[in-house]
Give the backbone structure.
Amino acid sequence: MSLAPAAAVNKKRGPGAGRSRAVARLLLFCCLAPFPALAQDTLLIEHALLIDGSGSPPRADAAILIENGRIARVGGSASIRAPAGAEVIDAAGKTVVPGIVNLRGRVGLPSALPPVSDCCTAESILRQLAVYVSFGVTTVADSGSGLDLVAAVRDRIDAGEMRNAARVLTALRGFTSQGGYPSGADGFAGRVHETDSARKARRRVDELAALGADFVHLWMGRRDDGADGLEPKVYRALIRRAKARGLPVSVQAPRLEDAKRLAAAGADILTQSVTDRAVDREFIDLLLKNKVVYAPALTAEQAAFEYGDRVEWQYDNFFKRSIPSGVTPVLNGEVLMRQALDPDRSRRIFSFEQAKRNLGALAAAGVRIGLGTGSGPAWRFEGYFEHREARLMQEAGLAPLEIVRAFSANAAAALGIADDRGAIAAGKRADLVILNANPAEDIGNLREIHAVFIGGRLARL
């Protein structure tokens, strides 16, 4: 059978953990009651060009057998036969890649048109996760938006009860210093842990672990903040307690010296570019020795000034198809004027250019690179920004297969979920994307989305 259009489900040849609090589950069940549970079936994708996410060269005429939402076998099309009753997709002329794993996102916050009152509900979480998946993003690491509902949504998606939403991992609430970023930003007030006490920090980590957090996230502030970052005694206590709880640690630290200290203290992921100066050999050696994944989030740096130039991509149909109406006039009005007149505009542009140079240097030195964007808050458009990030990573010097590995195997390993997803291999969740073109030739071909599968089930785009 030929592959059907992206929005259609193929006809079949035959029949085919919850960790969150009870109150959050009840609220979510009420919101999601119209969505039926999804049956698990057997699916064979054959005759595809396969890019498996491991960094290996593309494999021609590949077949992927999916059973009960997971990949059962991967091999040549001639070597894998469809079981009785299986759905079969002929993917000749198509390319299959793992779904994008974004190491730094936000869910439930308004990414397009404030006010903030339109956020922080199960509906807003699901709306954003649906947009993510429509762009081929199949897992988002929500780095601390302070919503317990995110964990309940996560469990329903992982149970296979929804097909039209990206999976989500959550830090629940991130950590910052007293008055530090982003405690005063829209949508974050009261939703982050501000602490200057190692004892309180350890207790908060224990509470987050009990509530079902998947990782711990720290902010070290920004150069234009009045507040200092977390004190060493606090972030060391946080990291040690997180490791004792089996939770990876992600960090936003734009200053080189802070990033060095946090990498030495045991941080697993740096989800913001170093922007204050060029990285040096000491930093490179630290990341290599400690196997730290560096996710530059170049789009987050660029979004701080680019609207002041009346960005052309706002007219891109790939962008507009999943964005609410009314966005363009605001971008060309209030947002443009604010950024064009920003007294820090030249510094923000320098920071972005420094971030690109640093990414190129780190990748060339063999540092593990992941993909993160900071998408989700206002004016950082989920889904679309992941594709912009991939393009910027290519501009910084990464080859297309390195970028695919960054958003698949590297990202999954950083989050401690490599056994579960992040590559097209036996035993992994069948979260994958079928493309109409080969991204190994041009990373821009990631936009050529034909179909997205979550747990082996076709998502509506």
User: Anything to note?
Assistant: The first strand starts at residue 42 and ends at 50. The mean pLDDT is 87.
